[in-house]
């Protein structure tokens, strides 16, 4: 699928007035497949989600890192579904330990792009 076609479907399928019956269509299946199978489309899609949360795209090493850190900010409490943490005080990143607390294992490289993370 081309990015321009995807953008048209994005507007259609992210509308607050979306009729749920559209979820059962081939067009919706193709839309979802494009997110998972096309890196350009996936990157564009994640940037749209980041922009909705009013987080600056490019603040972290890659779009996926920014997206998953944005996902974690959706709640003021510790998010049990978070896959990555950023500690603002110590400026370090980590993988959460799902032990009911705020523990995480520090990492030095991004799990998605492999870049060395700044301290």
UniProtKB/TrEMBL annotation:
Record InterPro entries: DUF6980
Limits of the DUF6980 domain: 59-118
Protein name: DUF6980 domain-containing protein
Organism: Ohtaekwangia koreensis
């Amino acid at each position: 699928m081309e990015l321009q076609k995807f953008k048209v479907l994005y507007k259609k399928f992210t509308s607050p007035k979306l009729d749920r019956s559209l979820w059962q269509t081939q067009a919706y299946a193709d839309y979802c497949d494009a997110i998972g199978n096309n890196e350009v489309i996936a990157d564009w899609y994640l940037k749209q989600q980041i922009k909705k949360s009013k987080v600056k795209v490019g603040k972290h090493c890659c779009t996926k890192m920014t997206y998953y850190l944005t996902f974690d900010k959706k709640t003021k409490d510790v998010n049990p579904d978070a896959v990555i943490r950023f500690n603002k005080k110590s400026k370090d990143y980590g993988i959460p330990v799902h032990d009911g607390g705020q523990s995480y294992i520090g990492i030095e490289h991004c799990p998605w792009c492999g870049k060395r993370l700044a301290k």
